[in-house]
Amino acid sequence: MATQNQYQWRRDKDGLGVWDHRGKVAVAGYGHSPVDRRWDERSMDQSLGAYTILACRLAMEDAGVTPDQIDGIICCDSHIAGGSGGTASNWAPRPYFDPPYDSELGLTLINGEWLAKVMELPNVRFAPTGVPTIGEMVGMASQAIADGKCNTCLVIYPTGNLEGRYRRGGENADDYAKGARQWVAPWGNHGGNDFINIFPHNQYCLKYGGTHDDLAPFVINQHRNGLLTPWGYNASHGLEQLTVEDYVTSRYILNPLRLWDCDRPVNASAAYLFTTAERAKDMKQKPVYILNHASSRGTARSLTPTLDEIQAETGSTGRKIFEGAGITADDLSFENMYDGFALFHQFHIEGLGYRGMKFGDALDFYQTDISIEGPNPVLPSGGNIGSGRSRFWMHTDCIQQLQGRAGARSVTGVKPEIAVSGGPMPMGGNFTVWSASPD
Amino acid sequence: MVILISFDIDGTLDIGDPPGVLTMDMVRIVQKKGFLIGSCSDRPMSGQQAIWDRHQIPVDFVVSKQMLPEVKAKFQADVYYHIGDREDLDKKYALEAGFEFLWPHEAIEMPWFVEDDKPGGD
């Protein structure tokens, strides 16, 4: 059942034309676990495995699907804290619990084979390994349904966090920054992640004017939308609305990147039920249709992407997104592009040409009405910044808005008809066009 | 003698995430004794203030981690303490700002946190 992931599913070139399967794949349900700051390593009903099982059950229930109908599982098997190793990613080696938690699987790691077994899903025939992160998973799932690899597929993104410093182990905790890391990650993960954000951001401000703190309305808006997401970390943990003063007085992580430009690692899981548009019509919820998925796989010339490289890539990404969906930027009701750091969301939306934006316009755009009540909603999901670093808010919000299930977070200044989400990075990721209608 | 105490929140106070060993009642005790008190946390300043308001503890300041020098400049005290649980975000900032530094498990032993009418109070 588990197959090594060599499936060529990406649409990553300009000029591919309208996606052959436009409007023929749909999402019929979703499910979320609670969003905790971290797993306490004791509560078995709050492990990443338990939360993933819960999210899957809720997604199946939402869609009205029974376990025997699931024939595909696409699950990212590298939990989010793990990429850079270290204390925040390693639960083991310690004594394991009773089955099914007698291995790392189910505790801090999840894969399709484990899920099919513990959830007793007897008919799974497509459960690849090596599944990429959430931006790409949605594209992979869309293409897998379109290609007939499976018909009723759970798409799962688990994000783990344990006590300890997130991504501060392994070579990030080393006293030495070796090789290229001496230039881009001299202080560990944050040196690296932050540098690739501040360098093009500073280039941007030099070229177009503006300052870092012009991001404040965007970040404040993210926190506001996050507090309108009841199961998000901020809303479910009683956090206060961030103010402009809070933002501009927060400490620098790496000048000019401020604390509130970053997202908060969490322990949570989400699941989506993908199927054919035809089957979705008979399920419980109003289907949300996939008009296109497009990949970006840009490479930098040197150690870190420059502004011109980022703009070339996001411009190409925008063209691929719209070409495959058969739409233009004017057709977007709203956007939910990735916000893992506040500093690069502007690159995504300028590449899209969202609301007629050109390169260099975003900081001014942020000073206008970007709220869910206005005509130009920016990230109504609130994203990672507003609800925790789960990476899935952007997709869930598109689904909810187009189904009319976004509650207090519903966009009211526009009619929710077509939306785009995806990421993570401007130089690389996968992007999805969602629609309330298959046409 | 005027003593100023800056409290980190997460990992230091019992209402923090993760909870620390210092209780809000301990904070009330030093506040009633006339200490200058406040919080210095990575939480938003408005969020810090909301915590103190919820617990009905009047504080003299709420600041972000990097703002201890401003606290020292603003308040005249004989000694300045910062209590926190992180080497990099508490101890480092505190010492650089000219504060004395205490880990929560050290602070809890201080006589300040014992009510004056109880044995052990000074």
Number of strands of chain B: 5
How many β-strand runs of chain A? 12
Give the CA-based shape of chain B. Answer: globular
Number of helices of chain A: 14
Average pLDDT of chain A works out at 92
**CATH architecture identity of the domain at 25-166 and 265-280 in chain A:** 3-Layer(aba) Sandwich
Give the radius of gyration of chain A. Answer: 20 Å
CATH superfamily of the domain at 25-166 and 265-280 in chain A: Thiolase/Chalcone synthase
Name its key features.
heterodimer; A: 439 residues; alpha/beta; Peroxisomal Thiolase, Chain A, domain 1; eight-stranded mixed β-sheet; two-stranded parallel ribbon; 14 helices; 15% strand; B: 122 residues; globular
How would you characterize the overall build of this protein?
The complex is a heterodimer of chains A (439) and B (122). Chain A is of the alpha/beta class and 439 residues long. Chain A has helices at 48-63, 112-118, 134-146, 181-184, 189-208, 216-227, 233-236, 244-248, 277-280, 307-325, 345-352, 362-366, 383-387, 393-403; strands spanning 2-3, 25-32, 72-75, 127-128, 152-159, 252-254, 257-258, 268-276, 288-297, 334-337, 418-425, 428-435. In chain A, β11 and β12 (428-435) form a beta hairpin. In chain A, α10 packs across α11. Chain A is globular, with a radius of gyration of 20 Å. The two termini of chain A are 34 Å apart. The mean pLDDT of chain A is 92. Chain B is an alpha/beta fold. In chain B, 33% of the residues lie in helices and 17% in strands. In chain B, strands 3-2-1-4-5 form a five-stranded parallel sheet, with helices on both faces. In chain B, β2, α2 (45-54) and β3 form a beta-alpha-beta unit. Chain B starts with a strand and ends in a 15-residue tail after the last helix. The model of chain B has no long low-confidence stretch (mean pLDDT 94). At the A-B interface, loops of A face α2 of B.
